[in-house]
Amino acid sequence: MRDRADVVRFKGRFALPITHTTPHEAMVEDLLFVRDVLDGAGIEYLLVRGNDERPVIAVNWAQRKALRAALVAACEDRPFYSKTVDAKGPAVLVSDGSMSATSKARIFRLFRPRVHLASGLNYGASTGVQIELWSISDDEIVLPMENSLTRRVVRSEEAVRGTVERFGRVWPTIENMFADHASDINFDVDLVFSWVDGSSAEFQAQRAKRMQNYVVGEGDDSAARFRQIDELKYALRSVHMYAPWIRRIFVATDSDRPAWLADDPRVTFMPSEEFFADPSVLPTHNSQAVESQLHHIPGLAEHFLYSNDDMFFGRSVGPQMFFSPGGITMFIEATTRIGLGHNDDERSGFENAARVNRRLLQDRFGLMTTRHLEHAATPLRKSVMEEMEKEFPDEFAATAASTFRASTNISVTNSLYHYYALMSGRAVVQTAARVKYVDTTMKSGLRDMDSLLAKRSMDFFCLNDGSAPEIDLELRTKKVTQFLENYFPIPAPWETGI
């Protein structure tokens, strides 16, 4: 194996270099390899639905020696490792002749370590395929752990064999193992980004010209509100890497398609005139106006996420982070309180909208909102937004018609929708998500990025461009660009040249 040019050493293990492989793709590649080995050796197996997204292959305990021999032979020059789940011990190199340091193990994670040497991105046992040894007799089947369908002991006559198509192959399995479950999320989920190419000279000139006649709130005239350094490219990469279940991505923008983005059906650029209910109010430089019209985007799924281009998926998450199986939206509250006082011309558009939202909801439901939302992708439903527009028609229309943020604007996506849905029984608070907000213009923000990269333990993070910087623009641009390239080094399939 040491002679293979495509195998490297990383943290004491052999590994494959990462070029374009996502965590999910790595898992599927290893799964199909294991299947081919079993087919070639004539070893019977079942594909099993485990308790998470990881594929599970079940093999009869009586065939454990044949299984080990087949895998050891097939992995002679391949960097496969095996780590036991139900017994302690380090991962072992399969080509060394075993799958475990103990003979008692019945659950293994088989994986090829992968690493992107330039960035340090690496995959290990977390992307492994699970192999389980089942004791199968004429009367019963004894499993080492429960799965999504069965208990640990199953009567053999009840485990009726069937087939299922997964990962481009037809697999032997147990009947109903992969049937739709009541707890599954089977509806489509789309994602909408709002984005402005603030580096465009034409955009800057038009914005400055129109702003001459407006007085905006604190920070709303800052260049940080529209400055961009290709964050959208990396936000899209984060979707490709960590949320491959997203059906379709829309980019709500009036800017031109960036040079790095190819024409791809999975990513649709959506100009304002194509989804504003009243195009006569355009053009707009107000993100709150754009957000009030998202439910009019043609072809948008009923269930969708909304995000800004400075918000990223930090690790693999599923749709259950955002929706219940019944379609209830699950939003992430921040610890930051909205505070006291009413909306006024001195506050930022963000703070004003929270107060306008609060007043509307208190008038409607008699309940007070106290917190902002976290800076992360947030779930919405078209039908609820349509209902809200009928409930608050004047506020929706006035916000959509505000060229710049006004003190009377609502913020539908932060957080009028979420608390309206909560108070009407169609949303709950998501408390399990791990989110990090980073002000990249502060010295502490640079340290936060180092920690994010080293740990990769956040579900979501936001790299905000603050309006009161401690560090200069050139250093901030360099540090953020380096961080994003290291965190998301895998190009998405919709990038040019891929």
UniProtKB/TrEMBL annotation:
Gene Ontology MF terms: transferase activity, transferring phosphorus-containing groups
InterPro entries registered for this protein in UniProt: Stealth, Stealth_CR1, Stealth_CR2, Stealth_CR3, Stealth_CR4
Start and end residues of each Stealth protein CR4 conserved region domain: 450-495
Pfam families registered for this protein in UniProt: Stealth_CR1, Stealth_CR2, Stealth_CR3, Stealth_CR4
Transferase in keyword set: yes
GO BP: polysaccharide biosynthetic process
Family under the similarity heading: Belongs to the stealth family.
Protein name, UniProt field: Sugar phosphotransferase
Species of provenance: Rhodococcus opacus (Nocardia opaca)
Lineage: Bacteria, Bacillati, Actinomycetota, Actinomycetes, Mycobacteriales
